[in-house]
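Long-time lurker. I teach an intro course on protein structure, and each term I like to show students one example going from raw sequence to a predicted 3D structure in token notation. This year I'd like something fresh instead of my usual example. Would anyone be willing to generate the tokens for the chain below so I can use it in lecture? Attribution to the forum is fine with me.
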Amino acid sequence: MFKNYIRIAWRNLVKRKVFTTINILGLAIGFGSSILIYLFLTFHLSFDNFHENSDRIYRAVTESHQDEIGYNASVPPAFAKVFREDYQYAEKVAKVVSWDEVTLKVENRQQGQPYKEDVAFVEPDFFGIMTFPLVEAAGNRSLEEPHTAYITQKMAEKLFGSPDALGKTLLYDNSEAIEIIGVLKDLPKTSLIGQGLFISFKTLENSDEFVAEETWGGISSHLQCFVLLYPNQNIADIENALLELPKKHRPDSKNKHIYKLQPLSDIHFNPQYGGANPTLMWVFAIIGLFLVLIACINFINISTAQAFYRSKEIGVRKVLGSFRHHLFWQFLSETFVISLFAIGLGILLAVLFLPSFNHLFELELSMTNLWNVRFFAFLTAVLLFVSFLSGSYPGILMSRIVPVLALKGKLSHNDTGGTTTRKVLVVAQFAISITLIAATLIISRQIDYAVNTDLGFDRESIVMVDIPTEVEPVQLLSLKDQLSRISGVEHISNCLDSPGAAHSNWGTNIKFHNRPEDEEFSIQAKLADKDYLETFDIPLVAGRNFFEHDSITEVLVNEKLGEKLGLASSEELLGKRIEVNGGRTKATIVGVMANFHDSDFTQDISPIFVAYHPYWFSQIALKLRTQNTRSTLDQINEKWSNTFEGYVFEPHFLDERVAEQYEAEQSYLSLSKVFSALAILIGCLGLYGLILFFVGQRTKEIGIRKVLGSNVANILTLFSMDFFKLILIAGVLATPIAWYLMEQWLRGYTYRTQIHWWIFALAIISIMAITLITISYQTLKVALASPVKSLRTE
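-- Reply from a regular --
Happy to contribute to a lecture. Here you go:
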């Protein structure tokens, strides 16, 4: 019986090639998009689940309670030792310090090219917590020894030209020799830890105060602490026990710390601690579902529209003894055959567009990851879902046709499916497309607003150049003097980082003037020389610039500090004393800067002070003249390389850095554009199929209208208005939904664009224009035909 269903289904599909092709293409695009989204979601959902004891691995994090709650994915350096020795909750505890783009060079290699790579300094127990298998190791040696390291095969291949790196040596920061004592398997792409070189923690701990064992006062975002708990631990009980630590070790601090344990599985999807937004994963899943639903709506509309022409076939079948369930399964079989072809074509489309998808999100997804039981279960579920959803309604409608009316040709179109159902489905289709277009426009406006709005400082033609660590101030001043003589350099400043670099912000407590206690908020330090304001064109609203001294005695602050302190004007800040860094730094406010954005637009502007501290400078900022930029950079490179021989010169344009802050949003915008276009494309395929049906149904009517004096424009308007009415209804339904969804998204931004009415009007007009283009070809083809030919059509 089933074999017979399939055979008849195949004959019917071949007989109506155009409609079959439209249905297959629509479903294939939906399937292909769903497969790509499935790949994307499974990639993100599989982060760090490869560790053997992933359910017992936690990261220690800090909540800072001041005027607002801050979240830091780190703890004070002393936390690890105390948690290891004073509590009996964990099998292993390990600290990890991550540094980005440090200089590495292979020792003894002639004309060795230095590299800039991300590295991690780890305590030995780190590899007892995380499952990163060793390929080979040097005897009984371990990372307990300073100046030793493990390296991944991929990194070894890059640095040494071969994965056989055991016993080889490289130079860290052109100063410290690091011996490779172990080679690791390459880390999975779904690993929280992304470095390829793991240096023993003891190599670092004696040279950095922020990772010293006894330090409780500061938290560095570079340091993280991981623990492997004993089985069956109660996390709430552990966190309650940790509440005593701040009282014991930081009793006088106004910044109240609360230490918590974050599950390894939560790290990738917790935006509070720098992870991805899990809401976006749901959005992508819903978009994939929408695309499949639009394709199903196309199928239902076209199938029910064709039911009128198959009514005699159904009447004959019923007369010959077919029951309703036989007819139902017959039409469901046709749907299954179409879906089967569509899913094969969808896989092919996914394979073809996967490289572009990877490029868009900077991923390395592969179709080879799909050939597993989970994917085939997903594919089977989608196939059955689409087949049943698309085929059941047309099957039910057709099986209810009265055979006597069908054989006598007295059936109306309402008897075979009803125009109301088709209109409702088309409205739903239009509503989804309008929502996606409106969302794309709003996301685009927000990103444009964030990237192009005045940030309070100049970012055009400014180049940031990293400088090596532990550079003597005299050496840096000498380089600055040499660079300032280059004709293409307009201004130059030595600094910790640019004004908007949130990743290098240094937050500290502040005590203002004669107030008895520290304030309830932190202040951010921007360490720089006196040319900082001129280089970044930051205006002073009161007072003067500071003078450079051997120690910090004068500082600049921004207007935001006065607002947080409740002062009436910026002038009230001048001449006042502040204490920062736990009271170790005391200085006088000599100038007040205009506010500038020190982070992206999701964060409010922070209170800021700028002070001269040459031992903390890590970058040179150069304002270039726009003429001969390439020649100017070459001259800068020459003088920089002469000063810092053996280091890598890598200039970064500041405007590009600002744009990179919104790289994730740019990717989401691109994805929104792609899927909006796909939704519209699938919808257009369905509209094309419907217009083929309607034009064929009303050919004689068009001929009569032309004989009675109607022109082409009248006929085109006749067909268009029916769809335009449906688009307007869809717009009325989609507008509040799109507005609500995007209002929720924009709440993540402190500084945001406005949602205007014209955005939704533009989305509706766009759908109208696309619809008009879609239906014009077939409509015009019939409208331009001879009325004699139209009147002969039966």
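Some talking points for your students: The chain is about 50% helix and 20% strand. The two ends are 36 Å apart (CA to CA).
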